[in-house]
Amino acid sequence: MPPLDTLTRLAVLGTARGPGLDIDDDTFAARVAAALEKEPVERRLLLTAGSRAVAEAAARIAARPEIEVERAPVDDQPTCSARAAAALLELLRGQHAELLPEALDRLARAKQRLPPALLPIALRSSRADVHERLGAVLGARGAWLAKQNPAWAKLLAPEVMDLEKTWNEGSPDERRAALKRLRETDAAKGRAWLEATWPQENAEQRERLIAELEGALGPADEPFLEAARKDRASGVRAAACGLLAKLPGSAFLQRMCERADAALSWKAAGGGAIEVDVADKLDAEAERDGIDKPPRGTGKKDHYLTRVLSVVPLAHWEARFSAAPQAILKAVARSDHAGAIAIAMSRAAALGAAPAWSDALFSFWEQCDDKTVAAGLRESSASAVLASLPASSRAAHATLVLRGARKLPSIGLSIAHVAVPWPDDVAVTFVAVARHELFTAGQRASALVAELPRAALALPSASLASVLDSPLELAPSLSYFTPAVARFSELAAARRTLHEEIAL
Amino acid sequence: MTEAASKLLPGQVLALAPDPASASAGKKLARAALWQNLGAAGRVVWGEHRGSALYQVRADLTDFATKCSCPSRKFPCKHSLGLLLIAAASSPALPEKEPPAWVAEWASQRASRSEKKEKREAAKAAGEPSVDPVAQAKRAAERTARIEKGIEGLDRFLTDLVKNGLGGLEGQPPSFWEAQAARLVDAQAPGLATRVRRLGTLASGEDWPRRMLDQMGRLALLAEAFRKLPSLPPALAFDVRALVGFAMREEDVLAQGERVSDAWLVVGQVVDDDERVRVQRSWLVGRTSQRVAMVLQFAVGTARFAEAVLPGTEMIAEIAYYPSAAPDRALIASREGEPRPISGALPGERVTELLDRFARELAQQPFRERTGVVVTGVVPAVDAAGGAWLIDEGGVGLRLATADPWTLPALSGGAPIEVAGEWDGAQLTPLGAGAEGRFHALGGGAA
Known about the structure:
Chain A is mostly helical. Chain A has helices at 6-13, 28-35, 41-58, 82-92, 100-109, 119-124, 128-134, 139-148, 150-156, 163-169, 172-185, 187-197, 203-211, 222-228, 234-245, 251-263, 300-309, 315-321, 325-334, 338-348, 355-367, 375-387, 391-403, 411-416, 424-439, 445-450, 452-458, 461-469, 482-501; strands at 264-267, 273-276.
């Protein structure tokens, strides 16, 4: 803080205690104070200070700040329209902010850039999903601007990471990121790094670091994972087993297949039956292979089957039993351990499954009753099967669920697995079914209303037009859904505006 | 619909909204599909919207006057905003046609009202006596006496502050300043009361004692000037009376004030709503005259300001300056045609011209706190400490008072632009900018 001038010092101290007003230089203030000599000191002080304030405002001598400003390069990318800019500003201010990623992607695809007025608010955004899209829409002006503000410059051009330095000196998160990056280019070196520091890492960090091996996982990783399977920490052991399960031909997988083969045997007579034979005593390696004690309430055999079968690829059974998926699942259904086997097989679908397997599993879950497996587990198992399917099959399944031709998983989980924007089939079906169920107060109305926020973000342009031009109508008995439907229309309208204003 | 109206931007319409909820409701109604019988006849537009009942909405694009049959007490209501937004959209949703009776009637009422107003003004201008001069003089004398008593109290207040020292002011509650302000309101000196309230906001931050003393000193000067009113030049006496809180009647301004016809650009707007009344301060710059004018409007609560003054628009108008030693406050006396969006470069001053002009104006009227300005040929820049500047081609810089130092550089790209704002002798508060032939409103005003 600069030292106080005479007038201010006196005012702060108070004239009652102060030395009196005595300015002995040749400033404007001194002359004013002298002219007011006969007045009481408080009045002199106030009027002198006021006069000085006015004089300084009038006599402001402009400063010469030492700032070099370079001109921004010329942009060859056009800015978006004024209306698109107005829409984007709303989004950046937080109104319907969930649309931002799509809006910025569209802008980039249309080869347009943000208008200059929007650059600061966009650069100030704290959202990672905005940052990663800015590069494509800032244009030369935006890049020029970002360069001038250190906080933004860092955001746009993260320094080329010195991976080795980061691995040796970085924070836990940075080290994990460095390992992941190195694995992408040199998997063996990444593993070697991990092996070198492994004994010094704590359990939590070991568990998280080992997970980074999943990218570029290969047979060369097996010895390391085999060692990690015997780790002190159960989390690390589980992670190692999980990775070994994804390594075709690994000794682990072989052991698990052997256990599976011992546990399940096929009797072809009478359309096929599965016999389950689980020994009372676990083999020596079982615990290290992740076959732990069952949680309370789960049978020992069921638990064993779940652990073992969920890492065995489904194709294994087709070959071993010489039977089709449909027949195998029918036999599973008749088994005393139907639930445990089907849950494990649904998880194993993630390792790759032919369409016949997913069909058979979906049918199994639809016919399964509460006594065999509780509803929540049926739902999550069917969802695991759905997640294993390619995109087009997921969309086809969601359409079937919307039409009511399939019951599992729920509408919500089914459409959650459909890529955005939804293919026309899914979108048209969703809109038609929602329209009908809401208007007639159908049984699935509330399930559909719950998915409206997702739909508003996922519907393609044509379906948006359809729901905006003839809005969803609610049966009188469903009037409490009015706000949800209104929010949906609003969000859909905002998206339509974006689609219209940022044409591709 | 006319071309000028179609050039209107939705942001300018939304600036009319009394609150954000109305703006957002208006936007929802801005779709032609939700309306029926939409139409336009010249600058009058109309339409019907079925809400809880059928609402008939009409608007005049000349001054954005609106009328809706809905019962809402917001003004303008969401239906009116929706209709204006449709008018601002590029879609041909408003076909030119014969207005229905409910529109024609409204338009003709408006026309006759404005005629009556003109007649009244003409009568005033002709010096028609309307009040008893003796009673008026007596009332004025009484008021002056009350204000003089109020000023005595203000003197004691300020004197006590400097006698006991400013050091103790930092922790004073707002009520400390409010009590003195209330006494000045009772004494019918609301202008002085506002300044006292503002003192209360100064007692914190770096270097606050100096800023506090400066403002107390300027307040003391103003009080001193009021005491010496009879000996002041007549023009300056008007200023002092106005600053103390004598409101001049509009018809008197129209009758006595200097009139200037020009294409007036609304280059900046500030709305202060920290007191019970919202005060809107709009800065106008004349394209040909290069004169600066400040239009003040007041509104209580969510009521709308009487005159639509939209930042970023240009209107052909005659304004009347309030009598002053260095005129800046003005009234819009009459308008011609519709306001249109500003286009092309803004007329304005170089940095050095601004400094010279403000010095001249302070010499004429030393109580002025700020002036509106368009500075031309300046490059916005941010220094290493994050401070924002405008730098002219000679390297001379004006410090900017802004919480957003980056928008101006973004607009300029390092090239010289025009920046509109308020200059207080130390810092310029940016309110608008002209870059690449386009006007951008900054801060408040158009969202």
